[in-house]
Amino acid sequence: MSKRTWPRIKTATKNGKKMFLADARIGGKGERRYFDTRVEAETWGQLQRAKRANEGESAFGDDELARYGKTVRDAVTFYLAHLRRESASVSIPDAVDELVATKLRAGKSPQYGKDLANRLRRLAEAFPGSMLAQVTTADLDGFLSSLPVAPGTKNTFRRDVRTLWSFASKRGWADAAIAKHTEAARVDSDAPGILTPEQAAALMLASHDDVLAAFHAIGLFAGLRVAEIRKLDWRDVDLEGGYIHVSARASKTRSRRLVPILENLRAWITPIAQTSGPVVSKELRTLHEHARDAAGITAWPDNAMRHSFVSYRLADTGNAAQTALESGHDQSVLFRHYRELVKPKDAERFWSIRPTSADNVVSMTVTS
């Protein structure tokens, strides 16, 4: 058998199953193995040829592999696993679609699915035409570091990327470790950014649309998360009882809570409240950006409305347990991030923000 054609690859039947036999015997001595695919058989054959060319297995990288506690067989097993994943892999858009569909079938909310898809589609745009198994850890690190967002948001993207690779690993499309080994962005432990009383007042003054006004008022003066407001129905806003009911379905923590309707919030939402229907009944991104611009807020802190509520509420009540209960936070988070962030005088000015009508022109009242 010549070196050029050795080892010989041929089809064979084993236990009634069609397989590929790689025969590396010479003079009746040596090894032969069965494989499920021709690619696997050829790969093993290539390694045998390399071993023979380097005067036997001991010369075929044995010393190099031994440095890492590995053998040639370990190398073959690793490479074959890589080839299987690559041959079975799918495109990034297809993987994203399948992940989102699976999450929705498992009970995740439509908004979760939409947000997940939007973030991961940015990943697909960064690697057009690539199969999932072709993307490396270095590729993912480059993608994450290039995102023009805050470190905390980069880590949100990283979380979703890891979710995608973990999902793909279960289906044999990629190695979960590729995403797991990416670097997390450093997030400074500074107190969260909040709006000043003047900024909050200006934002409400610029909220000419009723839906936008309800969105901003409930975010600022009840502290609901944006995702919670999007799921809120006017039937959950009990003006007579004085509470907003955040259901377990709407809550990030999957636990229901009652949030008091404080007096300035009542003043804002009473004229625009409905008996039923979604509080946020349309897309508000453009309206929100216009209101921010009109209010002169050039830098919008992450979760600015919720962080403002928690900070000013804690300063007003001095009661961490109560504020934690109202906001759906863990009490330790309040002490770690919000304690003494706001002076009582500023809290008093924040909670005095109310609409007033004069000649059908809405103005603001902020006590000094």
List the helices and strands and how they pair.
Blueprint: E1 8-14, E2 17-23, E3 32-35, H1 38-53, H2 62-67, H3 72-88, H4 92-105, H5 110-126, H6 137-146, H7 151-170, H8 177-180, H9 197-205, H10 210-221, H11 226-230, E4 237-238, E5 243-246, E6 257-260, H12 263-269, H13 285-294, H14 304-317, H15 320-327, H16 331-337, H17 344-350, E7 354-358, E8 361-365
Antiparallel strand pairs: 1-2, 2-3, 4-5, 5-6, 7-8
What does the model show?
By secondary structure, the chain is mainly alpha-helical. It has three domains: 8-88, no CATH class; 92-180, Orthogonal Bundle (DNA polymerase, domain 1), CATH 1.10.150; 197-365, Intergrase catalytic core (hpI Integrase, Chain A, Orthogonal Bundle), CATH 1.10.443. 50% of the residues lie in helices and 10% in strands. It is built from 17 helices and eight strands. The protein has helices spanning 38-53, 62-67, 72-88, 92-105, 110-126, 137-146, 151-170, 177-180, 197-205, 210-221, 226-230, 263-269, 285-294, 304-317, 320-327, 331-337, 344-350, and strands spanning 8-14, 17-23, 32-35, 237-238, 243-246, 257-260, 354-358, 361-365. The strands form three sheets. It has a three-stranded antiparallel beta sheet, with helices on one face. β7 (354-358) and β8 form a beta hairpin. α10 (210-221) runs antiparallel to α12, α10 packs across α14 (304-317) and α14 crosses α17. The protein starts with 7 loop residues before the first strand and ends with a strand. The model is unreliable at 55-60 and 358-363 (pLDDT under 50).
